[in-house]
Amino acid sequence: MKLQRLQPHQNDELARLIHTSLDTWHRTRLNSDRFGTAWEPFRTTVEVYESLDPGCCVVAMDDAGALIGSAFFHPRETHVGVGVVSVHPSAFGCGVGRALMEEIIRIAGDQPLRLVSSAMNLDSFSLYTRLGFVPQVTLQAVTLDVPADGLPGASTRMRAATIADVPAIADFELRLNGVRKEQDYRFFAENKTDGWRLAVIEKADGALAGFLAASTHASGPQLGQGVAEDEATMQALVHEMLDRHFRGKHVVWLLPVGCSGLVRQAYAWGTRNRETHLFSVLGEAPPMHGITLPTFLPESG
Ligand SMILES: CC(C)(COP(=O)(O)OP(=O)(O)OC[C@H]1O[C@@H](n2cnc3c(N)ncnc32)[C@H](O)[C@@H]1OP(=O)(O)O)[C@@H](O)C(=O)NCCC(=O)NCCS
Fold first, then answer.
1. Cα of 75 from ligand 1 centre, angstroms
2. For the whole model, what pTM was predicted?
3. pLDDT tens digits, residue range 162-208?
4. Are 55 and 46 in contact (CB under 8 A)?
5. Residue 23 DSSP class
6. Ligand 1 pocket, mutate which of 25, 127, 276, 277 (most atoms under 8 A from CB)
7. What is the pLDDT of residues 143-162, one digit of tens each?
8. Which domains does the chain have, with CATH numbers?
9. Rg value, the chain, Cα
């Protein structure tokens, strides 16, 4: 096995690898076909990550040069995010995942590493915890078919964020959660590919009360990342984001199981649980004081 950085000519091969890895794992372990038969939607993942974090994908190749594994990493001011990690089904359990993760741990040096993984996947749970990752937060991935005529009762407190808001959003997350990811919020606010939404709610004095990003990509509409000072603000952000941008869409988002008000409201809208997940850290894990919604795109911790 050889490790190297992803080369541009490998982008489609990588999209196929991510699809077959996730699809085979979920069909054989969870009896779920939710990743479907098409690999093309995973081009979005590769394209987004290559524009957000160019050159930050480690791939594993077999002796014939075929891709057998990949892991994206996302260097940020305070840490390195990790994901998505995928190994070809023919190589499951052969040490490819460990080799990829050890390389990213080497690249990260002194920086903590942060990731979200499935709590229903003992293979990834074992891989990460054997390397020293410690689960911090349990999450539930919920899905909702947003009615075509919207979700009644949404507030009008939310406004679209601009580039000028980006430093304050990054500082807000640093103050509440001890991590900083300005590059992500700049990417969403610039919205060069028109696949992103970024919104804020402010207090009477103009200071931030919370923010929420969302991906409208056809590969899978989803909410997150977002941080708010309290559950009421996050609930208002989620409600208005769904009502304003996702009418008639099937949307997924991650909820910390401990946020009982958000969970109760999600059930009241009719959400279904898709999977449970763990947010884990290798290294220093600052306390998270904010109500925090991570996401699968981008998995920047
Ligand atoms: C999860 C995944 C990346 C793991 O990669 P892999 O190459 O199969 O994993 P490895 O063989 O390198 O390592 C697995 C480790 O877990 C250990 N392990 C596996 N099952 C275990 C168990 N039940 N208890 C304890 N340890 C276990 C193995 O012994 C090995 O540890 P070691 O290297 O210290 O011996 C791979 O299964 C995959 O691609 N799955 C589908 C996509 C996916 O789920 N991605 C993760 C998204 S977060």
1. 23
2. 0.96
3. 999 999 999 999 999 999 999 999 999 999 988 999 999 999 999 99
4. no
5. H
6. 127
7. 999 999 999 999 899 999 99
8. 2-111 (3.40.630.30), 141-293 (3.40.630.30)
9. 19
